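User: My advisor asked me to double-check a structure prediction for cyclic-guanylate-specific phosphodiesterase before group meeting. I don't want to rely on an old file, so could you generate it fresh from this sequence?
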Amino acid sequence: ALLQGASRALIEAKKFAGNHYHLYTDELADKDATQPLLEGALRKAVANREFEVYYQPKLHLASGTIRGVEALVRWQHPQLGLVEPERFIYLAEENGLIGAIGEQVLEQACQQAREWLNDGIEIRVAVNLSAQQLKQGDGAAVIERTLKRTGLPHHLLELELTESILLEENSRISSTIHRIRELGVGISIDDFGTGYASLSYLRRFPVSALKIDRSFISGIPDSDSDCALARAIIAMALSLDLRVVAEGVELPQQAEFLRRFACDEIQGYLVSKPVCARELTEQLGQPVSF
Ligand code: C2E
Ligand code: CA
Ligand code: CA
Ligand code: CA
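Assistant: Sure, here is a fresh prediction for cyclic-guanylate-specific phosphodiesterase from the sequence you gave:
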């Protein structure tokens, strides 16, 4: 019965796939009742290692090759099927399971990148981190251990952190980020431009890349202000010597615009949706076309 309850909640949740805000609005009435069920299922998922990592390629525009991928977690539930991260990450962040889930994702992603390297394909893998993972005192040690265990060269790992994490005045987060960077692991700012007006964190943290949020990219080419903002972010990244990646690229005109203004990489459905490791490996063997 527990599982049926959770299952119903997830099926309801899936109806709204694609817009996570519904979780907090349309389903608010249900949330209190279904949350404990979902939480129980999530605990089991951690124990049974039900998480699978999907990969979305980042296309390097100047060379037309794929040099990096983003690792995106999926919950492969035995009865419910594939559950999207926006259905459970918020809960895992609330109840502390995100640490354990994050470690499983990191391990799989590093392992996979190591396998690609063994096959002669050098691919940088980017893993999303939540604030909580950085607040744990041993955040950097977890990363160092995982790199050691999997044998992945440090420069092939990158961590994606949102702006809001860097704006928290938390000395643990700050020292963990600096230690991670000292390992030679990259730090990328996710959803860049959506968080806060202050850019002062770019001075305080050893950032290596910016990811322009999808909300700016979707306005290209029609919205003059989105075009101007995207250009300004690219110019800023170039002058700060940061790599710049555009997220959520869906149209050829957007790719063309981004190439013209020297954006380094594009990620989005135009190139590929997130896919399982096997499918990504197949893609890597073929020329990119759109
Ligand atoms: P994100 O880090 O901003 O990841 C990008 C999201 O945009 C992914 O959703 C991806 O599938 C989607 N996307 C990619 N290209 C396009 C496009 O062209 N158009 C549109 N409309 N969407 C596109 P996904 O995989 O559902 O992940 C959602 C969010 O869940 C991620 O947003 C990230 O914040 C979080 N997440 C995913 N995996 C992990 C993880 O392992 N750990 C943590 N802490 N969070 C994760
Ligand atoms: Ca991300
Ligand atoms: Ca993002
Ligand atoms: Ca996002």
